[in-house]
Design goal:
It contains 12 helices and 23 strands. It is α+β, with helices and mostly antiparallel strands.
């Protein structure tokens, strides 16, 4: 009987065995194991923080009230073009043919006033700076067929006095002199006027300026634009001149004070301002409005024109009312009356929806100051604001979106929102964002974030 030789069992853990030596080639090092453990721990931390971030990521609730139809009413009057605008927001309340371009005569002086104020602000002119007219301007100032104050070569007139003569007395040569002071000559100033109108967002086909005063080109004599026909004159749409008026009175409210002068004095000349004259007329027809400031104009081509800032005598709501070619150029009174009655017509047919200062804006009543949980801080309207709609209802606003870096607010903090249920609303060209509402916190708040949230936001933001 043959004895089988018993096989020798190899100890798997014998470091001397070939089998162990073969397996040991794939055994990770301690350093590699430590890296894997750290990676796993880091992954776990990120997952936990992400879960916390999801809990914290609470989107504010969106509230949308029933739709409000803000389409402007159609004005029915004898003018070629007219509109009524809420002065605070630039919302157009009522309109009639407002994008057609018409001659606007001396209302052009409002754009000149804007550019003079801008030059003063930029340090290019100063109010007490003396300016001397050249022969062309002095000659024009002696033309008694047009409104003027006498300007003599060699004499100096301050920018302040010239502006008052321009917009209060409608002095044409004084306005041309101001344009020259800003740009050097009439042609360059006309170019600046057109560039400024474009910068306000007024479409190219709705404005055309050839001089600072709004006069026919040929009347300017040696100061005229040589490459334009003699019968050429400034033209603009009702919405265009309303936009210029809006920008002038909002950007440079000092002009309103200039227009509110009762007596206008220039040298030996003393006259009532146009504002006083128009207010006297409005009182005689029992108008519901006071005129705060306005510029009128007239020419055979323009007829009678007015763009003015009116204030309701009862509630002090302010409106811009524009009437283009409202009557014959010899009859300004019909145009003035139309500007007043248009406001009545517009506001009686449209509903005034108010958000008063200190009131909670529906849908935007709070802002989240974010910790592990959202800390809601109540918000209120900073200023009163009017909206206009054809139907009654409540205005609602977009919520204030979460700002992950926001850890504190105070009463000076500012948040912006916008109405979300106002449909078909129209605003002046340069006021497309004026339906924004400014909200402020009712109280200050400082929130300390825990380390995990800080780390999470550091990773994400």
């Amino acid at each position: 009987m043959v004895k089988r030789r018993r096989s020798r069992k190899v100890n798997a853990y014998n470091p001397q065995s070939a089998q162990f030596r073969q397996k040991s080639r794939y055994r990770p090092s301690k350093r590699s194991i430590l890296k894997r453990q750290l990676l796993a721990l880091l992954t776990l931390i990120v997952i936990v923080i992400a879960l916390i971030g999801l809990i914290v990521n609470i989107k504010p609730e969106t509230v949308i009230s029933s739709k409000l139809n803000a389409r402007p009413q159609v004005l029915k009057n004898q003018s070629k073009s007219s509109l009524v605008v809420d002065f605070q927001t630039g919302q157009i309340i009522a309109e009639n043919n407002i994008n057609a371009k018409f001659a606007n005569a001396s209302t052009s002086k409002l754009l000149t006033a804007y550019l003079v104020n801008k030059a003063v602000k930029e340090g290019k002119l100063s109010w007490n700076q003396g300016i001397s007219p050249d022969e062309a301007v002095s000659e024009l100032s002696q033309n008694t067929d047009y409104v003027n104050v006498p300007l003599m070569v060699g004499e100096k007139y301050t920018v302040k006095d010239l502006l008052s003569a321009s917009i209060n007395l409608s002095a044409n040569a004084a306005t041309i002199l101001l344009g020259n002071a800003v740009s050097g000559n009439p042609a360059d100033f006309a170019e600046l006027m057109n560039k400024t109108a474009k910068s306000f967002g007024i479409p190219k086909g709705q404005y055309h300026f050839i001089n600072a005063a709004g006069m026919q080109n040929g009347v300017l004599g040696s100061a005229k634009i040589t490459n334009a026909p003699d019968d050429d004159e400034n033209e603009i749409s009702a919405e265009g001149i309303a936009t210029i008026t809006y920008r002038l009175f909002h950007d440079y409210p000092n002009v309103i004070d200039v227009l509110n002068q009762g007596d206008v004095i220039f040298g030996d000349i003393k006259q009532d301002s146009y504002t006083r004259r128009i207010n006297s007329y409005l009182d005689s027809i029992n108008s519901n409005y006071d005129l705060i400031g306005a510029k009128t104009g007239s020419s055979q081509k323009a007829g009678s024109v007015i763009t003015g800032l009116f204030e309701n005598k009862k509630n002090q709501t302010k409106y811009i009312s524009v009437v283009m070619n409202g009557s014959d150029y010899t009859d300004p009174f019909t145009t003035w009356q139309t500007a007043s009655t248009d406001i009545d017509s517009a506001t009686k047919k449209m509903k005034d929806i108010k958000l008063t200062a200190g009131q909670v804006a529906l849908g935007a009543s709070y802002v989240n100051v974010l910790q592990t949980t959202a800390n809601k801080i109540n918000l209120v309207a900073n200023d009163s604001i009017n909206y206009w709609s054809r139907n009654k209802g409540e205005i609602s606003f977009n919520p204030i979106e979460n700002n992950w870096t926001l850890t504190s607010v105070n009463k000076k903090s500012v948040f912006k929102t916008k109405a979300n249920n106002l449909t078909n609303a129209e605003f002046l060209y340069s006021t497309k964002n004026k339906d924004n509402v400014i909200l402020v916190p009712e109280e200050s708040s400082t929130t300390e974030m825990n380390p995990l949230i800080k780390f999470w936001r550091w990773i994400v933001y």
